[in-house]
Specification:
This protein is an all-alpha fold. About 90% of the residues lie in helices and about 0% in strands. It is rod-shaped, with a radius of gyration of 50 Å.
Length: about 220
């Protein structure tokens, strides 16, 4: 269903219920000044209701046929309800009851009044409740969407933090690799020096042994 139509529908249902209460209370007012003020308020409300009916009609006719047929059926009920409100207003404002009755009869022939006003009011109330429930579901969906968005932002922040941590770890590992390479070079150099020193020591020992052997041979030969 069109959200635009639902908005007009909600406004009309609230306005219709308000006008019905004002018509009932205006008939009980005895002060003429207060009564005329209430009549003026009702007249303005009826004009606003006419505007809403026209807007709903234009919106319904602009939709697809399947939706259009359903909305036009509801619109006929609202038009009938508005006609009854206008009748009530004319009845309480007319100084001549017979004239008001004749006007009511003429208007009755122009509109479809198969359903009683009480049933229409009940349907209007049910429509308002359905609209309010739909609005609540929309608000709940909006809240869920906001919560999901906040969760997504939090997850992205966590991922960014983890990425920074991994990059820092990679840099530290790269530094450790460089240190290991340097240590390998130092150890290789030390190993080579140790090997060279071993050969030098072995050579010195060999020379000493040879010298001692020569000295012993020389002494023994005498």
């Amino acid at each position: 269903m069109s959200e635009v139509f639902e908005g007009y529908e909600r406004q009309y249902c609230e306005l219709s219920a308000n006008l019905s209460r004002k018509c009932s209370s205006a008939s009980l007012v005895s002060d003429q000044e207060q009564k005329q003020q209430k009549f003026s308020e009702i007249k303005v409300g009826l004009d606003d209701a006419d505007v809403l009916i026209r807007k709903m009609d234009l919106e319904a006719r602009s939709l697809q046929p399947s939706v259009k047929a359903m909305l036009l059926a509801k619109l006929r009920e609202y038009k009938s309800d508005l006609t009854n409100l206008k009748k009530d207003f004319k009845r309480i404002t007319s100084p001549n009851a017979d004239e008001a009755a004749r006007e009511e009869l003429l208007e009755t022939r122009m509109v479809d009044t198969h359903l009683a006003s009480a049933d229409q009011r009940e349907r209007l109330t049910m429509s308002v409740e359905r609209i309010n429930q739909s609005s609540e579901r929309i608000r709940e969906s909006h809240r869920t969407l906001l919560e999901t968005e906040e969760l997504g932002v939090s997850i992205l922040q966590d991922l960014h933090s983890q990425r920074e941590t991994l990059l820092n770890s990679h840099k530290r590992l790269h530094g450790i690799d460089d240190a290991i390479d340097k240590s390998k070079k130092v150890l290789t150099t030390m190993s080579r020096r140790i090997s060279r020193n071993k050969w030098i020591v072995a050579s010195v020992i060999g020379a000493l042994v040879f010298a001692i052997a020569v000295i012993l041979f020389y002494k023994l030969s005498r």
